[in-house]
Structure formats: C-alpha cells, structure tokens
C-alpha cells in the first residue's frame, strides 16, 4: 500500500478549483488525503463546500497581521499543523514572501489563468483581450519566489473569439482549469513529477 500524500489547499474565495480537486481525488481514489482547506478570507464561499465534505478548514485572515511577513509566518504555522506533502494554491490571491515560498520549495503549486509567461499578475483575461491574442488559457506551475514564473507542469489553451467579454473568456478558461489542475496534482501525488533545470518532466510509463 502506497503512503497517502497529504494535501493542504489554500483559497481566497469561490474555490471552484478546490472543488474540482476534491471531487477528482475522491472519485479517482488518489493516494492522497485532502488534509485541510485554509482561507485568508473568513467569508470565502469555498469554506462551506469543504465543511460539507468533512474536510477540516481554517482561516488565517491577512487583515489581522501588520506585515506580509507576520501573515506568512502565521499561515505557515497553520499549514504545518496538517503536515502537508503538497500545498495547493487554488485562487489564493496573496503574494507570498520569498521565505515562505522557499520553505515549501518543490511542494507548492499554483494555477494561473493565462498561458504563462504571458500575462502574469491580475486581470489576465482583460490583459489577453487588450493584447488581441487569439489563444489564451491557464497554467499549473510550481511556485517560486519569481511571481507567476515557476516551472510549468501543465497548460491548456482556449480560443479567444471575436465577441468575447472578460466574463465569457474567463468561464472558458475556468472549465479548462478544472481539468488540468486535478490531473497535475494527481501526477504529483503519484510521484510522476520531477524538475530539471526549470523544466518539469512527467513520467509517463507506470514504473
Ligand atoms: C481561478 O481562475 C484561478 O486561476 C485564479 O483565480 C481563480 C479562482 O477561482 N488565480 C489567480 O488569478 C492567481 N493569480 P476559484 O476560487 O473558483 O478556484
């Protein structure tokens, strides 16, 4: 019997990616436990889904800490209570300090709603529409101190259509996020990912 990997998921709001991960982990019987869902916002609607599914939740409100460092220290302490093998950022809308990211190096992963390295930062769908690109998408990547630039695990592309609004485009991208994020995390928990020189290798054969 393989050891179960422990996953802690961080959210800030809706948590639809978190839901997709929880559902896939259970339906596909991953060798993994979703150990906790942690939010930096007490009103994050994703917390209700977590509780309804019997997953421990915690809130570490950034408003209660005077500095980024103090918040990240508190967050790290709460995360570590759940002894994670992997920390998953799922719409966690906070810039993390270098020392926090370094502490979880190789075991912290993020999804970003653009085809990185295009459109890091916020309002990615607006950025894509303004740039006039014909394809857009989402990227799952390991988190490094370089914001939105870590080694890429998976990407999905969608077309940008003539009548797209930010809302329509973001929904098209989100549907892809819900597919690539669970599969990327499954690869991680199955031990299939390795990083070499900033590039992610995915072991394909069953070894
Ligand atoms: C997702 O589109 C995710 O890619 C994005 O926030 C949304 C969260 O939705 N993340 C970022 O923009 C990170 N920079 P969700 O809460 O329903 O998963």
List the helices and strands and how they pair.
Elements: E1 5-11, H1 16-27, E2 32-39, H2 46-52, E3 57-59, H3 68-80, E4 86-89, H4 98-103, E5 108-112, H5 124-131, E6 135-142, E7 152-159, H6 166-189, E8 193-196, E9 199-202
Parallel strand pairs: 1-2, 1-4, 2-3, 4-5
Antiparallel strand pairs: 5-6, 6-7, 8-9
Helix pairs in contact: 1-6
Bound molecules: glycinamide ribonucleotide (GAR).
Bound chemical compounds:
glycinamide ribonucleotide
Tell me the span between the first and last alpha carbons.
15 Å
CATH architecture term: 3-Layer(aba) Sandwich
Number of helices: 6
Outline the structure in words:
It is a single chain. By secondary structure, this protein is of the alpha/beta class. The protein has a single domain (5-202), classed as Rossmann fold, CATH 3.40.50. The protein has six helices and nine strands; from the N terminus they run βαβαβαβαβαββαββ. The strands form two sheets. A seven-stranded mixed sheet has the order 3-2-1-4-5-6-7, with helices on one face. It has a two-stranded antiparallel ribbon with strand order 8-9. α1 runs parallel beside α6 (166-189). The longest helix has 24 residues, at 166-189. The protein is globular and about 50 Å long. It starts with a strand and ends in a 5-residue tail after the last strand. The model has no long low-confidence stretch (mean pLDDT 96). Glycinamide ribonucleotide is lined by residues 11, 13-17, 90-91, 111-113, 174, 177.
């Amino acid at each position: 019997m393989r050891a179960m990997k422990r996953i802690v998921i961080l959210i800030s709001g809706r948590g639809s990616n978190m839901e997709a991960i929880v559902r896939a982990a259970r339906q596909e019987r991953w060798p993994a436990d979703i150990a906790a869902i942690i939010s930096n916002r007490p009103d994050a609607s994703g917390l209700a889904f977590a509780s309804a599914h019997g997953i421990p939740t915690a809130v570490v409100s950034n408003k209660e800490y005077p500095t980024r460092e103090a918040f990240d220290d508190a967050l790290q302490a709460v995360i570590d209570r759940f002894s994670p093998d992997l920390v998953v950022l799922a719409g966690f809308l906070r810039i993390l300090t270098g020392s926090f990211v370094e502490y979880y190096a190789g075991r912290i992963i993020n999804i970003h709603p653009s085809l990185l390295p295009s459109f890091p930062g916020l309002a990615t769908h607006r950025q894509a529409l303004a740039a006039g690109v014909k394809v857009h998408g989402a990227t799952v990547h390991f988190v490094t101190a370089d914001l939105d630039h870590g080694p890429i695990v998976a990407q999905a592309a969608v077309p940008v259509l003539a009548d797209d609004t930010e809302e329509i485009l973001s929904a098209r991208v989100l549907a892809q996020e819900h597919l690539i994020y669970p599969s990327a995390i499954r690869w991680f928990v199955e031990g299939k990912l390795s990083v070499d020189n900033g590039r992610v290798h995915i072991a394909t054969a069953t070894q």
